[in-house]
Amino acid sequence: MTAHRTFVRRAAFAATAGAAALVLAACGSDKPAGGHDMGAKESGSAAAASPQVGDHGKAEGRDSADGHNSADVSFSKEMIQHHRQAVEMAGLAEGRAASKDVKSLAARIEGAQDPEIENMSGWLTAWGEEVPADMSGMGHDISSSMPGMMSAGDMELKKASGGDFDKKFLAMMVKHHEGAVTMGRTEKSDGKYGPATRLAADVVTAQTAEIEQMNKMLGKS
């Protein structure tokens, strides 16, 4: 009788131990029947879906604040002043020009160059450079340092009106644009900062077209 009870106890213990082993095995494995590790598979998928931060950063680095040179700084500082004078001249047209075409051209110049001034000012700030003081309308003669800039005397355009204003405005703006095209070509050749060289290319393209338009309006071509 004692032997029979001992046999039953041993059988029950073996059954319990076997069931526990099966439960532990099931809980401890993440692998499906095919033997692939699901954790590794999911980790690999997440890595593939995520962008390569290092590569992206390297690509963006070409246009970072570190990717500029002295030509970019000079271009930005000088073109800001150059654009400011063009915007000042263009702003006179609405109240003084007789020709609707002149007024339309002036508005287009003002609308294009104001945002470019803001962009270049932002670059200089990012580079730790000083943004030039706004000397437009203050009688400063800074024409000697940049091609196409009007002297304080040239800016007597402010006193002209009607057809006289139209002719003076177009003649002066042609000269002004020619200076900007020269500056843009220099930046395209010597600059390093991508956005600055692209802006320079845009200036050359847009202002060359406007020079042709203004010469036609003056009857020169």
UniProtKB/TrEMBL annotation:
Residues 55-66 have a biased composition (Basic and acidic residues). InterPro entries: DUF305_CopM-like (IPR005183), Ferritin-like (IPR012347). Gene3D superfamilies: 1.20.1260.10. Residues 72-218 form the DUF305 domain. Residues 1-25 form the signal peptide. Residues 32-70 are annotated as: Disordered. The keyword Signal applies. Keywords: Signal. It holds the Pfam family DUF305. This is DUF305 domain-containing protein. The lineage of its organism: Bacteria, Bacillati, Actinomycetota, Actinomycetes, Kitasatosporales.
